Amino acid sequence: MTTLHLVRTSPFKDNTFAMCLSVYQKEDKVILMDDACYALHHPSIKSINSESFIVIEEHITARAIDNKLGLTSCKIEDIAKTIFAFERTITWQ
Amino acid sequence: MKITSLAIINASSPYSSINAKESLDLALIFGSYEQKVSLFFQGEGVWQLVNDQNPELLSIKNYLKTLAALEFYDIDNVYVCENSMKERNINENFHIENVSILSAEDFAKKLKSHHIVLRF
Fold first, then answer.
1. Torsion of Cα atoms, A59 then B63 then B9 then B109, to 10°
2. B57 touches A: beta carbon within 8 Å
3. Taking CB atoms and an 8 Å cutoff, what residues of chain A touch B15?
4. What is the pLDDT along chain B (120 residues), one digit of tens a residue?
5. pTM for this predicted structure
6. Which of A69, B10, B23, B58 is the most buried (most CB within 10 A)?
7. Is A27 helix (H, G, I), strand (E, B) or coil?
8. Residue B97 CA to chain centroid, in angstroms?
């Protein structure tokens, strides 16, 4: 089953992001949303497969986070469509 | 008359909870009553100081702009934990001025010099 992971919390605050990475498979996609945007500043971001990760433009811009890794960016209104493209969604919060 | 000093520790990121806004409201209320207030930023709280934020994109009012009004309330002491900044790879590009970046030891010493400590 294809899985979309929605991560919502900062990796500096709890280990939710680390737990997501521990179950994430290469065919999955991960959306970093809300405070998970701060993961772009976390050392664990260097180990990710950047093609599988998506950030939400409004969420990173609101926080003035620089998308230095050039992760795929989408708008808030694209999230629903993305969720329906996957067989399963896991929300990490 | 005994002067009581208040330290407010900001340990929450700006948009995941209302802690940051409530903390700022409290600081301004104490300041308006001419109480001695110092602000401390630690952990996730340091994200509040990052420059060029735009919460209006999240339909949130930009309450962080009010931090610039601190001096009008005689809240001149603003301290940031250097370790928290380094962990998060944040530089000194803050949206407010006169912020003192303190080592963990100095941060603790400065905190201990206050009578009352509230943490948000």
1. 110
2. yes
3. 34-35, 62-63
4. 566 899 999 999 999 999 999 999 999 999 999 999 999 999 999 999 999 999 999 999 999 999 988 888 889 999 999 999 999 999 999 999 989 999 999 999 999 999 999 999
5. 0.93
6. B10
7. coil
8. 12
